[in-house]
């Protein structure tokens, strides 16, 4: 099914809404404890449970409106349900904290697999929007694979060595800023290997 076009602000809201609400809700509940069915749950676990429900709802709405979920969105949804569900079920915040590690490690592994085969899986996703020579795609893919691997390691270090609040800030702002900064610094590469207009057709 072809992806339907929707208002970009609606799409952005559906994609980022759960993350923003997770941050806001955690800020309000981080010092509270909730007793449910005789078990005490921290504000972080309660926030995680709400986050799971919210991302299921927003992903469903996005799929309903566009008829499509990207591989990244689908993998994120699966990992949130799996790792977040384990955190809530076992009342152990470590599982949801490992979700970014698994997500970025998976991305890095897929990109490295393509590189080993002389392919750029990244170009298969972005070539229409960003036409580049094969060599340029391979360089960008190698850089992004290493970058994703670095993010996976960084997430492990942050959640294992720092507080839960520090990890929430890192996940909400640090990872987002890092991704934005990475692509901003690749401008010269994209310009150098960009295909001339006649080759884009």
TrEMBL record:
<keyword id="KW-1133">Transmembrane helix</keyword>
<keyword id="KW-0997">Cell inner membrane</keyword>
<feature type="transmembrane region" description="Helical">
    <location>
        <begin position="102"/>
        <end position="122"/>
    </location>
</feature>
<dbReference type="InterPro" id="IPR006008">
    <property type="entry name" value="YciB"/>
</dbReference>
<protein>
    <recommendedName>
        <fullName>Inner membrane-spanning protein YciB</fullName>
    </recommendedName>
</protein>
<feature type="transmembrane region" description="Helical">
    <location>
        <begin position="12"/>
        <end position="29"/>
    </location>
</feature>
<feature type="transmembrane region" description="Helical">
    <location>
        <begin position="74"/>
        <end position="90"/>
    </location>
</feature>
<keyword id="KW-0472">Membrane</keyword>
<keyword id="KW-1003">Cell membrane</keyword>
<comment type="similarity">
    <text>Belongs to the YciB family.</text>
</comment>
<feature type="transmembrane region" description="Helical">
    <location>
        <begin position="168"/>
        <end position="185"/>
    </location>
</feature>
<feature type="transmembrane region" description="Helical">
    <location>
        <begin position="143"/>
        <end position="162"/>
    </location>
</feature>
<comment type="function">
    <text>Plays a role in cell envelope biogenesis, maintenance of cell envelope integrity and membrane homeostasis.</text>
</comment>
<dbReference type="Pfam" id="PF04279">
    <property type="entry name" value="IspA"/>
</dbReference>
<dbReference type="GO" id="GO:0005886">
    <property type="term" value="C:plasma membrane"/>
</dbReference>
<feature type="transmembrane region" description="Helical">
    <location>
        <begin position="41"/>
        <end position="62"/>
    </location>
</feature>
<keyword id="KW-0812">Transmembrane</keyword>
């Amino acid at each position: 099914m072809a992806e339907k076009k929707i208002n970009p602000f609606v799409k952005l809201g559906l994609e980022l809404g759960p993350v923003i609400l997770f941050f806001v809700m955690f800020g309000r509940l981080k010092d509270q404890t909730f007793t449910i069915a005789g078990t005490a749950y921290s504000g972080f676990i309660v926030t995680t449970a709400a986050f799971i429900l919210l991302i299921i709802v927003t992903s469903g709405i996005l799929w309903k409106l566009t008829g499509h979920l990207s591989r990244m969105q689908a993998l994120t949804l699966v990992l949130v349900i799996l790792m977040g569900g384990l955190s809530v079920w076992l009342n152990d915040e470590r599982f949801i904290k490992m979700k970014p590690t698994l997500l970025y490690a998976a991305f890095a592994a897929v990109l490295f697999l393509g590189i080993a085969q002389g392919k750029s899986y990244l170009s298969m996703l972005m070539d229409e929007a960003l036409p580049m020579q094969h060599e340029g795609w391979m360089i960008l893919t190698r850089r992004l694979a290493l970058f994703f691997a670095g993010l996976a390691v960084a997430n492990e270090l942050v959640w294992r060595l720092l507080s839960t609040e520090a990890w929430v800030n890192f996940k909400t702002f640090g990872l987002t800023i890092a991704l934005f900064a990475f692509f901003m610094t690749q401008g010269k590469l994209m310009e150098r290997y960009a295909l001339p207009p006649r080759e884009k057709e």
